[in-house]
Amino acid sequence: MNEFTALAQYYDRFVGADYPKIAEFIDVKIKALFPEASLVCDIGCGSGTLALSLLEKGYDMIGIDGSIDMLTEALDKRADLPNGDRALFLCQQLPEFELYGTVDVIVSTLDTLNYLTSKEDLDQLFYWFRNYLNPEGLLIFDVNTLYKYQELLDQHCEIFEDDDVFLAWRSQFDGTLCSHQLSFFSKENNCYARSDEEQLQRYYSQKDLLDLLAKYNFKLLGIFDDYSEKAPNEKSQRLTFVAKKED
Ligand SMILES: C[S@@+](CC[C@H](N)C(=O)[O-])C[C@H]1O[C@@H](n2cnc3c(N)ncnc32)[C@H](O)[C@@H]1O
Questions:
Q1: 240 lines ligand 1 (CB under 6 A)
Q2: Ligand 1 pocket: which of 4, 141, 197, 202 to mutate (most atoms within 8 A of CB)
Q3: Which class in CATH covers the domain with range 148-201?
Q4: Is the CB of 73 inside a 6 Å radius of any atom of ligand 1?
Q5: What is the pLDDT of residues 173-184, one digit of tens each?
Q6: What is the pLDDT of residue 2?
Q7: How far is the CA of 53 from the centre of ligand 1 (A)?
């Protein structure tokens, strides 16, 4: 399991994701492709921002994540929402997960699938996706591209700074696996306390994912450049797949 411990409390500050755009993209796809959908499961929901944005758009939500620290952030945010009780957060380790029932849509965003570093685990996850989706259910997920791993993350170091924390983020890519080392320096009185964590991701090709969709009888409805309506190009950093469960 990758660590999302020290990162959890700072994740929202450093993630730099356009959640309103992601939530809008997902909402538009659901309304166009499965308008009766009401229950959505967010796999690897992290600190819950997307799940709670979809809740605000009217969906009942289940969020699953293996990091109790990320889920604690999600629960804090949920407490501020009047209809927060319509979002259920569960701490479970992928690839196996238990939903106690089926859902209309499964989403998994911001390279959560890349954190499954064996092909067998990813295969297992798709098995459970199929198992827990209602007939005609939608599957919407993204993965990082080879371009991003090779050109932007290999031998890369980046510094992020905010009022009370300084983050050094290093990464290397070996053609298959990308390791990330994160060092946080958080201000405590007149000192900085250091905490480190490591994360490991695996690159999956478009073919890997198309093979899994075919194996578990999903019909591909589209592959997009990130969460735009554009087709991917050679400099796309993230591919977003939209698929439908077939009988
Ligand atoms: C980059 S974050 C994305 C979070 C969220 N989807 C978002 O859009 O902000 C990846 C998430 O996947 C979770 N994760 C990674 N590997 C996991 C595993 N094997 N089981 C459960 N959760 C996992 C992490 O805890 C983390 O919250």
A1: no
A2: 4
A3: mainly beta
A4: no
A5: 999 999 999 999
A6: 57
A7: 17
Domain coordinates of the chain in residue numbers? 7-145+205-245, 148-201
**What phi and psi values does residue 103 have, to the nearest 5 degrees?**
-130, 165
Ligand 1 geometric centre to CA of 241 (Å):
18
**109 pocket-lining for ligand 1 (C-beta < 6 Å):** yes
At residue 122, the pLDDT reads 98
Given this structure, which CATH class describes domain 7-145+205-245? alpha beta
pTM above the 0.85 mark? Answer: yes
**pLDDT tens digits, one per residue of 113-161:** 999 999 999 999 999 999 999 999 999 999 999 999 999 999 999 999 8
> Whose alpha carbon is nearest atom 19 of ligand 1?
94
